[in-house]
Design brief:
Elements lengths: L10 E3 L1 H8 L3 H8 L16 E3 H10 L5
Antiparallel strand pairs: 1-2
């Protein structure tokens, strides 16, 4: 685990939990969720964001700096 990773559950539900795990603001999480390259999802029939911690951290390690 890197120093920026916060331990916790693998399944992250809601912008606040995703933001905490990714060290981002809720606003940034909602903005990034609109980008199909970012592993933040909204399941069909739901209005709540969802992410897997491992996918999110892998994306954060490899994301372009301008994202």
């Amino acid at each position: 685990m890197t120093e920026t990773e916060v331990p916790g559950p693998e399944k992250l539900w809601g912008a606040p939990q995703i933001a905490l795990a990714a060290n981002l603001s809720c606003t940034a999480v909602r903005r990034l969720a609109k980008d199909p390259r970012v592993p933040i999802y909204m399941p069909p029939g739901s209005n709540r964001l969802f992410a897997f911690r491992s996918e999110l951290h892998a994306w954060l390690r490899t994301k372009p700096q301008d994202t």
